[in-house]
Amino acid sequence: MSLRPSKKQTKLQSAQAQRALQQLLLQSLTQSRLRNASYSLRSLARKIGCSPAAVSEILSNKRSVSKKIAARIIERLGIEPEAKQTLLSLFSTAPQEQRQVGTPHTAYTALATDQFKAVAEWYHFAILSLAETPDFRSDPQWIGARLNVGAPLIAKALERIERLGLMRRNNDGELVVTGEQFSTTDEIASTAIQGTHSAILDLARYSLERDQVSTRDFTTMIMAVDPARLVKAKKMIRQFREKLCEYLEQGDRSEVYQLGINLFPLSRQNDQISNKIEKGAVK
After folding, report:
1. Cβ partners under 8 Å of residue 144, min gap 6
2. Which residue from 158, 160, 198, 262 has the least number of CB within 10 angstroms?
3. pLDDT number for residue 141
4. CATH of span 7-97
5. How far apart are CA 202 and CA 208, in angstroms?
6. Which CATH architecture has domain 109-215?
7. Where do the structural domains in the chain lie, given as residue ranges?
């Protein structure tokens, strides 16, 4: 029996795929605005690597997206693995790509989803850091006001953090940190961390416009460098970061800060230079 879908089925599946992608983009835009009121359609377009006009047309159902473009958008949004698989399956219309009846979906544990979310959304780690301050209250409204994040998102984050064992209830019913750690698969970590870095850059732009100079520090340098020295340079950055964190985490810890040090190429690298960097010619 042939598994080839009819033209009507293919058209319906394509429409479902476009609607699912629209909902995903709208959800991302809404959640980002809950975290940052100044987040715009232009910000979303920059994040997924599309023009604002293209995103607007996708959301208004004036433009269809191919599976390849959808995969790129989903990757940049940092969507959890099972949701990614489900959405992309809607774009699979070729006979060889059709899922046979009775074939189970790839299994993911609830813990993997929690881990992915905890890594992908920056405020999970911000909550854990805020919990180390003396006046911390495990109240979503209070935490949300301190971190400028919507209380519903904070409430879900607290549930997730507790399930992961990163916080527990004390005798008074308040959440306290446990010091537990967790790890994820490479696929989950790489996708989620990419989304986290993107969100942190958005927060940095917001801080640049909002916070007083006395409470922040933004510096930048543009220089010609020897790419072979990058391996040693990255090691020096890690050492500096650890030393600075050790210094700042002493004394009266009352606020949560984000430390980001960015070193990236402005000029395009050729293959010879890339190989030189990977080999680490300078130790």
Report:
1. 150, 151, 153, 154
2. 262
3. 96
4. 1.10.260
5. 10
6. Orthogonal Bundle (1.10)
7. 7-97, 109-215, 219-283
